[in-house]
Amino acid sequence: AQTVTQSQPEMSVQEAETVTLSCTYDTSENNYYLFWYKQPPSRQMILVIRQEAYKQQNATENRFSVNFQKAAKSFSLKISDSQLGDTAMYFCAFMKQGDGGATNKLIFGTGTLLAVQP
Amino acid sequence: NAGVTQTPKFQVLKTGQSMTLQCAQDMNHEYMSWYRQDPGMGLRLIHYSVGAGITDQGEVPNGYNVSRSTTEDFPLRLLSAAPSQTSVYFCASSYSIVDGTQYFGPGTRLLVL
Fold this sequence. Notes:
The structure holds two protein chains of two kinds.
Chain A: E1 3-5, E2 10-14, E3 19-21, E4 24-26, E5 32-39, E6 46-52, E7 60-61, E8 64-69, E9 74-79, E10 88-98, E11 101-108, E12 112-117
Parallel strand pairs in A: 2-12
Antiparallel strand pairs in A: 1-4, 3-9, 5-6, 5-10, 7-8, 8-9, 10-11, 10-12
Chain B: E1 4-7, E2 10-13, E3 19-25, E4 31-38, E5 42-51, E6 54-57, E7 64-66, E8 76-78, E9 87-94, E10 103-104, E11 108-112
């Protein structure tokens, strides 16, 4: 069975600074997807970034980037130039890839609550 | 497009009552799922569907039933509510088997007394 671990329950960063959120996972699969989701106080789940395991290049989306270390089973999220609107719970998630492609079954970590301070 | 919609937003039930949480999407997505979110535990998969007429169990299916008679709708039924089912419930849908990106509804907060 796959597991996802986020070891930082809470983090704080000053506005305009950079912060890195950690995520490790355990799997025997070779093909899978990794995701970071953001959940602001509104409770809406918002996809931040996605990484395919077969891709060596780290995914980036504007101020958000990941450091994907497949051998170490590590998938950290870096947020650059932090903004007040980045304050949210951040979830790391794993999805196994089946024979037909994505299985669409997400396994989530327990989340990291990020507070951006003015 | 309205995306993924869920009703109600909030519901209070008494132990033993039954109810249906509604989920609908207008994006013609084949894949739909139900997750529950509990404090300190992240989201966990309850049931999922890969298309109309096809459903399967997720990680925590006990106490819940689902059906998928149309592509658009995927209701979640609580047969006999228990306090342990107090949670926030999210419905999600996905079109692609290529990248697995899921789109989430706004959630339903359920309190079972």
